[in-house]
Specification:
Number of helices: 12
Number of domains: 1
Structural class: mainly alpha
Shape: globular
Order of helices and strands: HHHHHHHHHHHH
Low-confidence stretches: 1-6
Helix content: over 70%
Distance between the termini: 44 Å
Length: 239
């Protein structure tokens, strides 16, 4: 048990350091930082277009918003990451092992996303994006395996949150963590976990929802690395 928890702490700290390294590099290169911000905004628009059916669904709208904003969106997680880095020992000590594992996966997801965003931005000719430039940048990076890993990680986090809703003891433990988490400076993490738990609980089973997310994203993955960017010029479509 101790070994698993120590390895969870090591994984979280490694991911936090990797994400912060990317942010620091972009702060030192304002032009790169501007391109990353433009890329994040473009990808947010793309995500909302790709998953418009889920966002419009009475059953899935709340889960889709959580998924796109908290797991897969363009949000600035630097404050939460800095908080985590200071209190990882407390996190590992206080939270159940399953939740520590989910946080480690979430950290890996964010670190990989920051790395991909930097690589994509470096491949862009400017901060002005359109469909051809977006596809071309993905192809220049050549990081299809990392894109596949990104999809796997976000689905892993979502499935973990869904699984928690069917584990009574874990859900009770999560509620009991409110005061200790706040005292340890882990309030942001607590809010994220509770929001995810409450969102997925309302679905009463997230398999169909996550299947739709996965189908959308894997179809896009194939398009990104096989499409002719010039064929998308003037299409007005966000691939």
């Amino acid at each position: 048990m101790v070994q698993k928890r120590e390895s969870g702490a090591t994984a979280i700290l490694r991911s936090l350091a990797a994400a912060e390294q990317e942010r620091t590099r972009r702060q030192a290169q304002p032009e790169l930082g501007d391109r990353v911000q433009a890329l994040k905004a473009y990808q947010q628009a793309r995500l909302r277009l790709s998953h418009a059916d889920l966002l419009a669904s009475p059953r899935y709208a709340a889960a889709a918003r959580f998924f796109l904003d908290e797991l897969y969106g363009p949000g600035d997680f630097s404050r939460r990451d800095a908080q985590f880095a200071r209190i990882v020992p407390a996190l590992v000590r206080l939270f159940p092992r399953e939740i520590v594992g989910t946080v480690a996966t979430l950290g890996e997801l964010h670190a990989l996303t920051e790395s991909l965003d930097s690589a994509m931005a470096e491949a862009l000719p400017s901060a002005a994006l359109d469909a051809p430039a977006y596809v071309r940048a993905w192809q220049v990076t050549g990081r299809r395996a990392d894109r596949e890993r990104q999809i796997d990680l976000l689905l892993d986090v979502a499935r973990s949150l869904d699984r928690y809703t069917r584990t009574p003891m874990l859900s009770v433990s999560l509620r009991m963590m409110r005061a200790p988490a706040r005292a340890a400076g882990l309030s942001d993490l607590q809010v994220f976990l509770e929001r995810g738990f409450d969102t997925f609980k309302t679905l009463r089973g997230a398999d169909e929802f996550l299947g739709c997310i996965e189908a959308h994203e894997r179809a896009l993955l194939a398009q990104l690395f096989t499409a002719d960017p010039s064929s998308l010029a003037g299409s007005g479509q966000l691939p």
